[in-house]
Write a structure and sequence with these properties.
With 258 residues, the protein is of the alpha+beta class. The protein has an eight-stranded mixed sheet with strand order 4-3-5-6-7-8-9-10, with helices on both faces. Helix 1 packs antiparallel against helix 2 and helix 5 packs parallel to helix 6. The longest helix has 24 residues.
Length: 258
């Protein structure tokens, strides 16, 4: 069983951060953002959230390593590694779109054992513990049983040109061939939506671990399938990700291979 302090600390960290972030969100002006790259932005809210979350984790688990999107890797080469995205969906945040979240995953010797995704504006907290199922607001969730016709696929991508082009090709093929394919702008939430049966899949070329560490456990614990583009079980070393309800997995693999 997971140490209860792990879940409690994660919940406390994102709850404290959320109170601050909601105030910033309500008055945020997009002209204040900074560009990390041609396709990525950074806001003061990202840094504020990261500072709060890291502070809470370090206070309770000083011997754990931390990997966070903005701060990078802190205290490497320890068995426990927290993987943090202080705001997943920063562009959504900047344009007053409520589809943004905070994502915290905990790995033990390279295996994700706990994940939490909190979307403050939606008042939804998703969490999963290895071997114990996945939950939203403490109600157990599971992937959908839809396998054709009404399938909703989503996608995301890394920031380099190659990954963007791969995502565009995938989107075009799925959009033309099936009911729908769209980008919601928060990989963490899209994974949570796969886990809760709201959508059937997400495909991410050029994935980064902090975007998905919590979400992959949610999907797995909700009965879904998480692989790389070669249809092998996904690991923290993989650069591409497919997460599905399992029923649409083969169709997605076929599209990617074509």
């Amino acid at each position: 069983m997971l140490n209860k302090n792990i879940k409690n600390t994660a919940i406390k960290a994102v709850t404290i951060a959320a109170k601050k972030l909601i105030k910033v969100y309500n008055s945020f002006e997009r002209r204040t953002v900074k560009m990390k790259s041609a396709h990525e932005i950074l806001t003061s809210a990202d840094l504020l959230s990261e500072k709060i979350i890291i502070s809470e984790i370090k206070r309770k688990f000083s011997k754990h390593s931390i990997l966070s999107e903005e701060a990078g890797l802190l205290d490497k080469e320890k068995d426990y590694l927290w993987i943090i995205d202080p705001i997943d969906g920063t562009t959504n945040f900047s344009m007053h779109n409520p589809l943004w979240s905070m994502s915290l995953g905990l790995a033990y010797k390279g295996e994700i054992i706990f994940g939490l995704i909190y979307a403050p504006m939606l008042k939804e907290m998703y969490w999963a513990e290895k071997g114990c199922g996945a939950y939203c607001n403490n109600k157990k969730i599971q992937v959908s049983s839809i396998n054709s016709g009404k399938v909703i696929n989503t996608f995301c991508h890394g920031s380099n040109e190659k990954d963007i082009k791969r995502a565009i090709k995938y989107f075009q093929k799925q959009k033309l061939a099936n009911f729908d394919c769209r980008q919601l702008g928060s990989a963490a939430l899209e994974l949570a939506y796969v886990a809760s049966g709201r959508i059937e899949s997400i495909v991410i070329p050029g994935v980064r671990s902090w975007d998905v560490a919590a979400g992959i456990l949610l999907v797995s614990e909700a009965g879904g399938t998480v692989t790389n583009f070669k249809n092998k079980p996904w690991t923290l070393k993989d650069c591409d990700l497919i997460a599905t309800n399992g029923l649409v997995q083969e169709q997605i693999i076929n599209v990617l291979n074509s």
